[in-house]
């Protein structure tokens, strides 16, 4: 039987939820590896809703679980129902929802808090020595919860290709090690069983982002 991997989403849409291409890439690569994805999201309100045409917040209010169900085609459960004992690994795609809904990184940076249910799940997988895959901005969750861990969000020198490179310094200030990696590369922290890749932290062709996520998924499944 294939590995059962929990995928935790943060809504639907890059600016206020999970990045849809990253989420899809995770699900596609899990399927290719013969693993079974079990999709979860917290049943909480989004920080806000962004009009993805205008790039501006609106007055709407939306629920993270309800919005995440769009990506999961309705096959999703409340994160509160996740039982680590029945699962082999955890993957959290990126998107601003990680920094807005799963944590307060978007407004508080290194001084952020992590959503209680998300922190509990991360700690449960970590305590069970089960691998955790994180891409794009989601490595900040591990950096906040597991001081001393090793992650990558890409490169630490800001340029057109790496517009969010300052994130690396914030991670170092949390006491973790940031390792520079290209968009098609991953970094593995064997002590904490973390597998990270930069995804859309890099301005790169979408196939390169899919390739990097694919390597992350392959390694998570291998470690499971």
TrEMBL record:
<dbReference type="InterPro" id="IPR029062">
    <property type="entry name" value="Class_I_gatase-like"/>
</dbReference>
<protein>
    <submittedName>
        <fullName>GAL3A protein</fullName>
    </submittedName>
</protein>
<dbReference type="InterPro" id="IPR026041">
    <property type="entry name" value="ElbB"/>
</dbReference>
